[in-house]
Protein 1
Amino acid sequence: MKKVNLFYILSLLFVAVSCNDAIEIDQPGRLDEDAAFQTVDDLQAGLFGVYNRLDITPEIAFTSVFTDELAIGFDSGGQGLQDYGFTLNAGSITPSAIWTRSYAAINAANRLIRAADLITPEDGEQAEYNSILGQAYAIRAYQHFRLQSFFTTDLTDDSALGVIAVDFVPTIDQELLRNTNGEVFSLITADLDMAQSLITTQDDPIYISQDFVKALRARMAAYRENYAVAGPLAEELLNKYGLATQEEYEDIWVDESNAEIIFKLERTIGDYYDFQARAGLPGTGSPGRVGWAGAAFAFVGPGVDGSPYFEMGRSLFNLLDTADVRYEALVHPSSVVDPDYASGEGAETNDILVVDKYPGSEGRPLMNDLKVFRSAEMLLILAEARAAAGDINGESGSTASLIKRLRDARFDDDTALPVYANQTEAFGAILDERRIELAFEGHRYLDLKRMGERGNRGVLKDPVDCAFNNACSLPATDYRFTFPLPIVEFNANPGLREQQNPGY
């Protein structure tokens, strides 16, 4: 089922407001819940508006540029140079985009949850009512976790400052301060428990399901190094969804297969995101833009002729093997590959590595569904759990065996079983495999933040890609692997200035 313009129209119930602050959003003159929602059908329509708030293009764009996934493209007009040079501060666009949009989604979910209290389902509507409510709770949990991932210094420390836990609709005069991680994660867990108890079974990956809840629990537990929880959940989902065949894998990235996909954000012609960059918001080249995912890398379309202003970073490209199906998914066939690129002679025309992860679908160049949870990530979470337990080598039940399983699927061949000298090597290998498997999906920044020190990895660009600014490396321990609270929030909530993250 396509969630087309209804998403945009109904989202106006929640988001047609003018405010300086993402938290203080109970505005005079807006449509109250008792007027907007009177039936279960109204709730279902409102839920589409909440879904419309979900977007991961800011982290896809920022992560790709800030880490070592990209290089400046031959058609660059100067886009992204601050992020490419590791400049990150309270005025940067990405922290603001993720903060304000996540809280807007949380507010929309909270309004829907509050509205549901006003409605009594008619005969035969209880299951639908419960599922709508469960999806709203799951979205609220997902957005709080998204914020936590970027804005807390240490996901494993319950006493560290987290974000603002909001399970209600704030009034205009409230100035809310940060909660502890323990408090925020308690809310997330309670919301996921509620979602799990309410959501009915469904298998369409564009809607939140019981498996979405499990995948979010698995990712959250891995980020918090709670592998006793992460491992079994990841293994259950991996066993259920399996790994794509070669043909299926290529079709995933043109939206012709749902193999491996646990949950994705559908993008379709005519919806709110069907733009290169939406008017009134930051334009092409900014992580704060709203539009096609592929427009984070190119102006016009896929390939050399699509005016790529970013290209694949050489340090990532050098990890790829042409026998690996991921090469086909990541590197556009029009790319020009120069084996002597390091000499620097004629690199602008002789070495053009065009990103092909978002080539387009439905006849729309650069527009693709956004894959949020895939079974391949679950495999890598399970490999992480095995490494944390010290089970790094062996033909079964080990980190090495899981990495081999993934490579066997991607090469369609019996690959060598790796051997790791110690846990550091194993964690490093997981990061390297995640770097290839999850490239341009918004994971690399958070992967280095949470696991880089354990795996002895950080941002490391090829010298050719950073010769112009010398921003070649960044250790995973750097303070910039936690976002600053955005200055836009301080304008209406000045007390948060005292809770700014270290380094900013």
Note: Residues 5-269+371-484 form a domain with the Serine Threonine Protein Phosphatase 5, Tetratricopeptide repeat fold (CATH 1.25.40.390).
Protein 2
Amino acid sequence: MKIQGEGHIFKRFDQEMSHLHSVVLDMGKLAVQQLADANGTLEKADVDAAHQVITNDARLNALDIQADNEITNIIARRQPMAKDLREIIAVGKIVADLERAGDEARKIAGLTIRFFKTSENPPRQEILEDIYALSDFVMEMLTMSMKSFDDLDLALAGNVLNDSLKLDNKLQSTIRRLSTFIMEDARNVGHFVDIVLGIRALERFGGHAKNIAGHIVFIKSGEDVRHAGLEDILARIQA
């Protein structure tokens, strides 16, 4: 027997989930744009633009609050069960990762201010090239994660997880390269710590992209793979 109004309730739930989905996609696009803009401020030594990137982080924070409110309201009104509840829980974790990714992008803009406003001897662009290359790589990781989220594509999620290993190798190479700059010119010592902090921010940005890929696996399979090894996760995806 069909409960009166049941179809309407299901329709409203689908509409609310669709809207939440759109908000999360907007967060992903904004997080990637924030890092791209932060990179631009470093390349152009544009302190004013860097301040604008930091200000724009409030937009991502607002979407974070909006998504959290929508999740709370959906759970309170619809009392979802099983797969629906699993998806909502995972979406909440994706939202948290995207907000934190935005925080890491803001730190790159902070480097611009530190290097070109407060420092009398800013670093040469040659020294910053690795930051740009790493930024491009982690932006692609997050873009791929969000595409995986949009399509619930486990193959794409697997690609992001594979890229996380490549990111580890890139980070090690970058640190070695920075060390050579220090040995070649002692004047670079003053920038070393700040640049390393920027690199670590990019590592965490990529880490959030990896986390999101793991959340996609959870949505699709119901398995929590946060603490599983990469080979184990990929085996589950391919099963």
Note: The two ends are 38 Å apart (CA to CA).
Protein 3
Amino acid sequence: MKPHSALVIPFLLICLSFAFGFHSYKNAEQRIVNDLNQALRKSVTANMHCWLCKDSIQTYAKLQKIMDAPVAINSTNEHFSEALKIKEIRPSAGIMIHVLKEREQKAIIKQIPDNVITSDTVVWLSPTVNATSEGLFVSLQGYAQCPVTTILALSNQTWAAIFFFMAIIMGAYYFYLWRKQQRRDQGTEKDLVHFGNLTLCYDKNCFVNEQREKLKLTPMQYALMEMFFLSSSHQLPKTDICDALWPGKENADETLYTLIRRLKPIVEEQSNLKITADRGRAYVLEVKS
């Protein structure tokens, strides 16, 4: 199996893992926003007489006039926290009150800190306060500080984890197969000896030519050819051949001559090699000139 093709399945599994994880993460964020929205509605309804009464609006107006800029008040609120259904965000939840003029209405969302999730904005304009004649707005917004870890804990990452571990397992499996193939290829290369256009294959005990065709050799012929290939000079003294192939036989010259005579045409017809005699004392396997 090719390395690039083996990586396709693990890559797809990782993509699925991130897709499911991101989708679940966004769903958890939306759950938090929805919870902040419903808690803010309850809190505004329950505390309207405090936050949005005539005296409070006038106080907001004075603050806005003194600062000559939008005024923001951040505070935790017991009623707001208790109205939240998600218990994990209660300790870091609160309400932001912005005091601004009509022309500044779009500026209330520009300075939200990092890791803070906010509700929708409730904008209040009271017709009973003189300050409203100047276009004074009061906006309320629920918020909760939610680090990534909190959102992940609230999200369902089961399928993301399943696909991720499947990718790890598949990646490790394909890596194992690839390493196994590498070792096999390395081992195969070590088991091959090349000379001319013939190759000695140790693992299969045979010789093959360029067309990957096996030479049909008898066991004695194969043994002699193997000796030629394993010799660095590809030259073998007659005595060494006889001692190796016919140990204990006093005179094996005739047997060796017969073996050489029958082996020569096979080698010469199926390769670019030939067997020649060297001064009657040795035989040489060499490439045809």
Note: Confidence is low (pLDDT under 50) at residues 128-133.
Protein 4
Amino acid sequence: MNQIAIIGPTASGKSALAIELALTCNASIFSIDSLSIYREIDIASAKPSALERQGVVHYGIDLLSPDEPFNVTTLFDYYLASLEACRSQGKNLILVGGSSFYLKSMLTGLSSLPPITQETRLHAQMMLRDLSQAYDLLYRIDPRYMSSITPSDRYRIEKMLLLYLQSGMTPTEWFALHPSRPVADPMPIFNLAIEREVLRSRIKLRTEMMFQNGLIDEVCRLESRYGRAPQSMQAIGIVEVFDYLDGLTCIEQTIHSVFTHTAQLAKRQETFNAHQFEQTFKASGTQIFEEAKRALLRDD
């Protein structure tokens, strides 16, 4: 079997391209998306419907309840299971999605981290009240590692602060002793290119369609069943509707907020994809289809 990955910003057409390739190349699809993995979150995640999937098997979607925790190691387990299924069925596999951090982690691996005590978490939270000060501390003790983290990246700063406070080691020291192990073998990566204004138009249209298709009703159902605390309830398209339900925004402002935040996400995705993968084939959908087809149908 062969496998490839298709990356690109949200609303660029990755899912449709992957489905077309899967139908042509005897392949299944593994979704690399932090929201499509949840059941019941259909409109907000923009996951392809059963009709749009055209019978192509999609792994990595509709696996968790919205109140179940999800992290990259969970995705690793689902990926390995889907890989084994494809091998037993003689299928190729196409990895596709906007959460390229997960693909990067699958290809490079993740180092194990020490168990974090509640005391350490509380200490870190106090220090993180001044994010710049926490970043400066970490940069002073480990400029080599922290140079790859921006001062505004709260998630990674918190992660490294917890590591340092718990282990007493700098990130560089810890990761040298606990090297990462890749989960996925190297594979061709295709980066779907799209003009900025065309992408913004697609995001605008998709946002409007989400509301027309019942996004507000979906969020109301999710809130009534799971509340607002779960990780999945913090996603773009959901938090903006909460503001609308709380009377903080009107419907026009809500739609604009979802559009704006989605466009900002797309820009971050493009930046990440440009800098985090050593070799990608970046081109239009038509060009990628032909190159990806060759990669999937090659006979090693």
Note: Residues 42 and 49 are 8 Å apart (CA to CA).
